[in-house]
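Final report, Chapter 2: Outcomes

The project's central promise was a pipeline that accepts a single protein chain and returns its three-dimensional structure in a standardized token representation, suitable for archiving and comparison. That pipeline is now operational. To close this chapter, we reproduce one record exactly as it appears in the project archive, with the input sequence first and the structure output second.
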Amino acid sequence: QVQLVESGGGLVQPGRSLRLSCATSGFTFSRYAMSWYRQAPGKERELVASISSVGGSTNYGDSFKGRFTISRDNAKNTVYLQMDSLEPEETAVYYCNTRLGIRNYWGQGTQVTVSS
């Protein structure tokens, strides 16, 4: 079955960086676009970034351009999110996502807490 497993979250001080990973299995990873979303307490889930199947095209939400970088390694079936200059308001659960046909698949999420 399709599995998406996020890792790399944790507690980080403002201005520091984190790199999230999403390991996948159960589908042909190299054929599908991948995305990262986040959901802060009391807020709706929002798109952070997307990357095309071969990594040649990326798309970022307006709030994340320039500080976040999405990438993928098709040999490892893994997608990454490099987050730099983190701010406290970016505390949220970060989710990995892919869409196979008409169905969306989500990981369990990884908590990122930005606090001094």
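Archive annotation: The two ends are 40 Å apart (CA to CA).
This record, like all others produced under the grant, will remain available to the consortium after the project formally closes.
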